Amino acid sequence: MSKPFSRRLPYSSLSFVSFTTMGFLLSKSMDQNLKKQQEFMLHNARIQMERQILMQNEMRERQMAMQIAWSREFIKYFGTFFSLAAFGLTAGAIQRKKPALFAPVIPLSFIMVYQLDMAYGTLIHRMRDEAESIMASEGDRLSMPRGMPTFESIERARRAKSHLPPLSEK
User: CA angle, corner 57, sides to 56 and 60, nearest 5?
Assistant: First the structure.
C-alpha cells in the first residue's frame, strides 16, 4: 500500500500545493459568484428598463387622453357658440338679404369639423398612421440637431453651468 500524498512531499511543497488548490477553488467560486452577480444585475437592469418604458407609455397615454378630453370639452363651448353664430348669421343674412353676413359661418364650420374629428372621429388614427409613415420613409427628417445627446456632452454642459466638480473626480 502506498503512502498518502502529503507524506511523500516535504512540508513546504505540500503547503504550496494546498494553497494553490485552495486558491483555485476560491477563484473558481468567486468567478461563479461574479457571474451570478452580473446576471442578477443584467436581470434587474432589464426589469428597470421595462418599468421605465411602461411608465413612459402610461404617461403618453394619459397625455393623449387629456388632449382628447380637452377637445371634447372645447366642443361643448365652441359648439354652443357655433350654433348661436350660425343661426344668428343665417337669420340676419335672410332677413336683411345680405349673403355676406353668412360668410363667417364657413371658416367657423371648418374649426367645428376639425374639433369634432379630434374629439370623436378618426383624426388621432390618421395622425398615428401618418407618423408611422414618416418614421418609415422619412427617418432622416427626425434626427436631432447636433446628434443624439451622450453622457459626455451632458456632463460637459453640466460642468459649464455648475460650480460642482465633475463626477469622474470624486
Answer: 90
Which amino acid is located at 13 in the chain? S
Q: Are 90 and 102 in contact (CB under 8 A)?
A: yes
> CA 40, 42, 45, 46 torsion: positive or negative?
negative
Q: What percent of the chain has pLDDT over 70?
A: 81
Query: Which grid cell is 128?
Result: 398615428
Question: How many C-alpha atoms does 71 have within 13 Å on its Cβ side?
Answer: 18
Grid coordinates representing 105 are 359661418
Report pTM: 0.61
Q: Most distant CA pair in the chain: distance in Å?
A: 130
**What CA–CA distance (Å, rounded) separates 81 from 156?**
53
∠ Cα 58 139 133 (to 5°): 70
